[in-house]
Amino acid sequence: MEQKIKINAGIIGATGMVGQRFITLLDKHPYFNISVLAASPKSAGKKFSEAVEGRWKIPVPMPEQVKDMTVFDASDVEKVSGMCDFVFCAVEMPGGKEEIRKLEEAYAKTETPVVSNNSAFRNYADVPMLIPEINGFHIEVIESQRKRLGTKTGFIVVKPNCSIQSYVPMLTPLLKYGIKSVAVSTYQAISGAGKSFDQMPEMIDNVIPYIGGEEEKSEKEPMKIWGCIKNGIIENAQSPVITSQCIRIPVTDGHLAAVFLDFEDKNNKPSKEEIIKLWKEFKSEPQILNLPSAPKQFIYYFAENDRPQTKLDRDLENGMAVSAGRLREDTLFDYKFIGLSHNTLRGAAGGGVLSAEFLYNKGFIIKK
After folding, report:
1. Is 29 exposed, middle or buried (0-12, 13-18, 19+ CB in 10 A)?
2. Which residues neighbour 27 within 8 Å (Cβ) at sequence distance 6 or greater?
């Protein structure tokens, strides 16, 4: 791997579950060094280990380098941005999306790029919503966004909803055949709510058939991922039509999807063997660039009838690969299959780190 000049990364929302994931993924990272941690005022001024005492949620030890780091107030934008070259943002705020938008724009306007795990800017046409293997070219709209913000180097990039990464990668190479409609049900881990079982005891021996806002995201966000660029903004795709149900299930990590799809032209649909071949051979710039967090193989296909399984397969390639199985013809749709992704790695912090690596290699994230 080409030797890179390491640059300084800040983590906004460092005390939450996704913020903690960012910390573990950036420990000894070849491109990025953690230079500042920030969170809510109640954590500000404390050592990080004190701020998360009893609340460390990641199943690996807390990295030594962050234990004694002082946590800063995320709202002290000038101070925090002055200590880093760019930031990862996974903050929760009482004012919701509007308050998060103001905060992220404030950081961008200090000429500090923001790689966000939040949903506040996902529907903005000049804000890329990246799955780098699928729509890396969307970073072209950053130039338009900078004009809107009045910045030279500052900008905001977001990652999509964690659940759509359990099926959108598998659908993407099939779009060239003309997918007409998709029905998907996602079975989502409790970490998607930022919780563990001790914090969410109602999930023990239980399934909850509702996750607020997830179904709308599942149906709309793929349209942006598959969109094209026109006049400096992202224009959403108009097809296929997607309908979804999103269900919370009692597992720690991993979102599983049951997917049904129909093609426009029954005479031009791919065979099962062709689909599996497309999945196995799917690779893009992250693989070609050999980015540190990129899986060597993006999509794995399991021929066994009982795979992929959440517990067995969510950690493929450090949780950054996605997997599929049970591809077969359907009595109502053309095909159906099962998909799986790790929601806090590929779907959240890991996807954010991969996006930052991609942006760094493309010259969008630089040393101040």
Report:
1. middle
2. 34, 63, 65, 66
Q: What is the residue whose two structure tokens read 């795979």? A: 307
* Catalytic residue set: 162, 255
CA separation for the pair 98, 46 (Å, rounded): 27
Instruction: Report in angstroms the alpha-carbon separations of 281 from 54, 82, 170, 297, 299.
Output: 44, 43, 11, 8, 8
**Token digits for 283?**
């690779």
pLDDT digits (tens, 9 = 90+) for 268-321: 999 999 999 999 999 999 999 999 999 999 999 999 999 999 999 999 999 999
Residues 156 and 225: their CA atoms lie apart, in Å, by 16
pLDDT tens string 134-167: 999 999 999 999 999 999 999 999 999 999 999 9
195 contact partners, CB below 8 Å, separation of at least 6: 17, 203
Chain centroid to Cα 33, Å, comes to: 20
